[in-house]
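Technical annex, item 7. During the second reporting period the consortium partners agreed on a shared format for inverse folding records so that results from different sites could be compared directly. Each record opens with the tokenized structure and is followed by the designed sequence. A conforming record, contributed by the partner at site C, is shown below for reference.
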């Protein structure tokens, strides 16, 4: 059976003295080179990790990540693997072929690897979630599908192998009720219709997989880059957002366990710092424990998003489960909790050149600013869309005064009434602060010089996160519309760019102002997408693991290296079952 799926000319166990470099040549059974093939190397000996604190490293304790690297074959189907004296497992993967595996050290410098084609059933089963999702038409109701995507695709992939399984209508409804308890806002009247459609249409695709289109072929230019991965946490963790700091470290937040991972990308060493909370705080914070059925959890604060001070490098973190702002000193490793007078659900965060900290308050429809000089908060109220929404927002303090375990929950509707949800935020080069409201489909702009707030309509659906480029243009992802959108504030005009993969639901983006590039999270298609502003050309980077859900991007100003993290929830559905921090860099020849 093994030779039916893959044939490797080198058997496992050839652990002789390694050479300095090994060249793999990957072909199909006819001897034709496969370009590109993804070649991922993982150490066989995993460093021992101290997990004595509830299964995680204790506060201040350093460990070593089992660093994995990935490269791609060139036009001749070849790739060179360096430093083969380290015992490693190498996986060779290509679209439409069965994975092959070998081990190093090896006693040969040139190795031929023959990949066997997948069967039709294996091939379609290997396709990423987005192409399966593209064939779910929801009975022709496009708005219902958009409602489903808005509420059910911001934490994990839809139409993945875990989602495609046969379920009864009642089982689907139960899943939706549980997801709403976690934080989704799928309207209750839509539960049963969506459950019936998912059952019927997924069954149709399983029985007729030929309806599922092939994913976009991998680009030949992938031979010019290499990936580095650092596994962090475990299958219960959620590595939500992270920060590339000027000190060279990457700070990654585990949202479900109130921990920050300080990663040294040069060595793979990392240290965990446990976020403190006030005495008497309860799991789930003021929102209440929404994850009562989740097997393992330890979040009182809810580590969410990161930003750093351009003045002294202090790191600021939004704790989504509290009325507070967190400060972390990367030198002393000390935390400070800045309690806020009002506002709920601190969300995305940025800093400006005046050393002020700006962040959205997603539940209370506000934007907060923390002035480090005065240590005071200013809270900006954004307009409600209706009298009903205004009343709901004004009632929030009363609702949050009630016991979080028993307080009533407003019934969601398709318009997200009561939850305009200011989400993404960024500071433009001119100092103005821009905000995207996810459910309201509009933008807010705050002028700190005058403290005025203005609103701008967004003619697409689902503005999630946004960034400004060097010219002050805003780049925004339209979540449900599968678009990258540019807004020019000077001309008040929009330009949209369809994503290069089908039925993607882009969560976030970042702009490389130095190089004129926009990087977009391809969270349903196991990709990271780059868009060159001048040429308007896309490039697609496949992730080294299946079900790799990304929601943040950081860019190195020095060399343009791009970082992202696998934040699939639950993580155990991802290939390998462990979150990873990923870096994409030009390949070193």
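Designed sequence (site C submission):
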């Amino acid at each position: 059976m093994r030779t039916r799926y893959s044939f490797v000319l080198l058997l496992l166990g050839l652990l002789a003295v390694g050479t300095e470099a090994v060249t793999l040549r990957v072909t199909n059974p006819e001897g034709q080179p496969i370009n590109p093939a993804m070649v991922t190397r993982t150490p066989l000996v995993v460093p021992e990790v101290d997990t004595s604190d509830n299964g995680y490293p204790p506060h201040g304790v350093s460990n070593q990540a089992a660093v994995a690297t990935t490269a791609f074959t060139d036009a001749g189907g070849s790739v060179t693997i360096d430093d083969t004296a380290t015992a490693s497992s190498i996986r060779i993967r290509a679209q439409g072929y069965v994975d092959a595996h070998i081990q190093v050290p090896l006693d040969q410098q040139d190795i031929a690897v023959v990949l066997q084609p997948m069967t039709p059933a294996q091939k379609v089963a290997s396709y990423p979630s987005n192409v399966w999702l593209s064939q779910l038409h929801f009975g022709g109701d496009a708005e219902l599908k958009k409602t489903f995507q808005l509420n059910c695709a911001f934490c994990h992939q839809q139409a993945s192998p875990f989602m495609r399984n046969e379920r009864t209508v009642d089982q689907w409804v139960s899943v939706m009720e549980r997801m709403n308890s976690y934080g989704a806002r799928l309207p209750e009247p839509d539960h049963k219709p969506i459950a019936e459609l998912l059952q019927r249409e997924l069954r149709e695709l399983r029985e007729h997989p030929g309806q599922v289109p092939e994913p976009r072929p991998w680009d030949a230019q992938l031979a010019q880059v290499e990936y580095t991965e650092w596994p962090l946490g475990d299958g219960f963790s959620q590595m939500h957002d992270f920060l590339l700091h000027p000190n060279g470290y990457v700070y990654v937040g585990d949202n479900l366990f109130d921990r920050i991972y300080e990663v040294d990308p040069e060595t793979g060493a990392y240290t965990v710092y446990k976020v403190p909370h006030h005495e008497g705080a309860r799991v789930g914070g003021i929102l209440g424990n929404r994850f009562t059925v989740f097997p393992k959890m330890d979040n009182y604060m809810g580590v969410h998003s990161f930003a750093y001070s351009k003045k002294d490098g202090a790191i600021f973190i939004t704790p989504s489960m509290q009325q507070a702002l967190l400060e972390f000193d990367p030198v002393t490793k000390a935390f400070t909790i800045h309690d806020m007078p009002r506002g709920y659900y601190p969300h995305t965060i940025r800093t400006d050149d005046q050393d002020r900290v700006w962040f959205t308050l997603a539940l209370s429809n506000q934007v907060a600013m923390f002035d480090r000089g005065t240590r005071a908060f200013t809270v900006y109220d954004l307009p409600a869309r209706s009298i009903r929404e205004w009343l709901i927002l004004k009632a929030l303090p009363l609702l949050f005064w009630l016991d979080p375990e028993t307080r009533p929950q407003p019934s969601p509707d398709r318009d997200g009434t009561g939850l305009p949800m200011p989400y993404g935020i960024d500071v433009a080069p001119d100092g103005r602060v821009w905000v995207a409201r996810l459910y309201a489909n509009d933008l807010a702009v705050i002028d700190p010089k005058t403290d005025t707030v203005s609103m701008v309509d967004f003619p697409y659906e689902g503005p999630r996160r946004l960034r400004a480029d060097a010219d002050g243009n805003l780049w925004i992802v339209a979540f449900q519309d599968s678009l990258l959108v540019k807004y020019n504030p000077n001309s008040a005009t929009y330009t949209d760019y369809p994503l290069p993969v089908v039925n993607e639901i882009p969560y976030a983006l970042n702009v490389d102002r130095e190089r004129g590039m926009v990087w977009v999270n391809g969270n349903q298609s196991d990709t990271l997408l780059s868009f060159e502003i001048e040429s308007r050309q896309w490039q697609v980077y496949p992730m080294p693991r299946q079900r790799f859900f990304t929601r943040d991007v950081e860019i190195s100003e020095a060399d343009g290296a791009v970082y992202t993290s696998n934040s699939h929830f639950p993580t155990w559905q991802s290939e390998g079952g462990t979150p990873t921090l990923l870096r994409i860099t030009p390949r070193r020849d």
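The helical segments are 2-5, 120-125, 129-133, 142-152, 169-182, 191-207, 387-394, 396-401. The two ends are 38 Å apart (CA to CA). All partners now use this format for quarterly exchanges.
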